[in-house]
């Protein structure tokens, strides 16, 4: 898989030690990046930040849907030739075409800025493989998951500290990093890691850099993200995938497209097409080139993963 533009991420000045601050900072930082995506927009929504329920009609008329992506291989990224690709954009292309919207336009931002960017109209949908969880379901609505996933760590070659899950990270007092806005922040905190001690980096490449340079012992991400990012590293490896504990129980995540809370009609129309692609095997065919296997195909629903939150 080709590397994305910006693959040589320089972490200097972008790392932060506090996750929630980093998420808020991400929202503020979004402005500059968001301007890129908003450039092609012909109309913004009303003051309430909704589209009165006819967003799909508007997208059909425009012929283009703006996708929020986070430069994360293999989920959603710009390849070395400048083309948008990844499991979520490729799936978006297939589904939106079936919905009568022929083109997709990427709006790159940091992962932690995806929900703020969606809710401030910088793009129409989050196409970044975002995990569905109750905290996020209180802010956006999700389609049903298009894949399921375990976590894994980027560690130095040979895994010198013997880090295989979040419990090990706490027990061995390892220096821990993950990405801005990542679900992995909460998994480490649930295992007993102090939130203010987490090194928050902009993305997986910055995480790899931090491990290689010895600033941290471990960077946590999805199993496919860590596997992809270590491919070009002589100094780091990815650990065996594992299920993080949520509420004390091993948890399998499901990743999905996110929509603004008012856009239930668009989300529902998207779900109808998604389920057709699941049934006819097309979904597996679209995701396979990005490293997704039968083991990542899923029947999980947004409703069950939203738990106590709104599922839309
Ligand atoms: C695709 C993805 N999922 C996780 C999340 O949703 O928080 C993070 O690991 C960031 N990337």
Protein structure class: alpha/beta
Rg, Å, rounded: 18 Å
* Largest sheet properties: 6 strands, mixed
Mean pLDDT: 87
Number of domains: 2
| Helix content percent band | 25-40%
Number of strands: 15
What overall geometry do the principal axes of the alpha carbons give? Answer: globular
Instruction: Briefly note the CATH topology name of the largest domain.
Output: D-Maltodextrin-Binding Protein, domain 2
Poorly predicted ranges: 1-13, 18-49
* Bound small molecules, deduplicated: the ligand CC1=N[C@H](C(=O)O)[C@@H](O)CN1
Keywords:
single chain; 312 residues; alpha/beta; D-Maltodextrin-Binding Protein, domain 2; 15 strands; 19% strand; disordered N terminus; binds ligand 6CS; Ectoine/hydroxyectoine ABC transporter substrate-binding protein EhuB; signal; TAT_signal; Ectoine_EhuB; Solute-binding_3/MltF_N
Explain what this protein looks like in three dimensions.
The chain has 312 residues and is an alpha/beta fold. The protein folds into 2 domains: 27-148 and 253-305, 3-Layer(aba) Sandwich (D-Maltodextrin-Binding Protein, domain 2); 149-250, Periplasmic binding protein-like II (D-Maltodextrin-Binding Protein, domain 2). Helix content is 34%, strand content 19%. It has helices at 19-38, 55-62, 87-98, 114-119, 134-137, 166-171, 184-190, 204-212, 223-229, 264-279, 282-287, 302-306, and strands at residues 64-69, 77-78, 84-85, 103-108, 125-131, 141-142, 147-149, 151-156, 176-179, 199-201, 218-222, 236-238, 245-246, 249-250, 253-259. Strands 1, 4, 5, 6, 7 and 15 form a 6-stranded mixed β-sheet that branches. A 5-stranded mixed β-sheet has the order 10-9-11-8-12. The ligand CC1=N[C@H](C(=O)O)[C@@H](O)CN1 binds next to strand 5 and strand 11. The ligand CC1=N[C@H](C(=O)O)[C@@H](O)CN1 binds at residues 72, 75, 111, 128-131, 179, 182-184, 221-222, 255.
């Amino acid at each position: 898989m080709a590397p994305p533009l910006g693959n040589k991420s320089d972490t200097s000045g972008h790392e932060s030690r506090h996750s929630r601050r980093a998420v808020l900072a991400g929202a503020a930082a979004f402005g500059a990046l968001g301007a890129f995506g908003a450039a092609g927009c012909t109309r913004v929504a009303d003051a309430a930040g909704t589209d009165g329920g006819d967003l799909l009609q508007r997208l059909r008329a425009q012929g283009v849907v703006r996708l929020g992506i986070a430069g994360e291989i293999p989920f959603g990224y710009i390849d070395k030739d400048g083309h948008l690709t990844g499991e979520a954009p490729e799936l978006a292309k297939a589904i939106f075409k079936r919905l009568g919207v022929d083109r997709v336009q990427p709006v790159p931002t940091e992962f932690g800025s995806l929900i703020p960017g969606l809710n401030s109209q910088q793009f129409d949908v989050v196409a970044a493989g975002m995990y569905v969880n109750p905290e996020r379901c209180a802010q956006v609505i999700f389609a049903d998951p298009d894949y399921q996933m375990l976590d894994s760590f980027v560690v130095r070659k040979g895994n010198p500290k013997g880090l295989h899950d979040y419990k090990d990270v706490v027990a061995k007092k390892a220096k821990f990093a993950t990405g801005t806005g990542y679900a992995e922040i909460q998994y480490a905190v649930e295992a007993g890691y102090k939130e203010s001690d987490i090194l928050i980096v902009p993305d997986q490449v910055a995480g790899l850099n931090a491990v290689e340079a010895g600033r941290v012992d471990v960077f946590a991400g999805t199993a496919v993200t860590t596997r992809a990012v270590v491919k070009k590293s002589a100094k780091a490896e990815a650990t065996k995938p594992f299920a993080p504990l949520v509420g004390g129980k091993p948890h399998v995540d499901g990743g999905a497209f996110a929509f603004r809370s008012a856009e239930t009609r668009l989300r529902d129309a998207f779900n109808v097409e998604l389920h057709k692609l699941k049934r006819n095997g097309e979904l597996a065919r679209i995701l396979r080139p990005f490293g997704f296997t039968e083991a990542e195909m899923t029947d999980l629903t947004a409703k069950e993963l939203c738990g106590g939150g709104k599922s839309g």
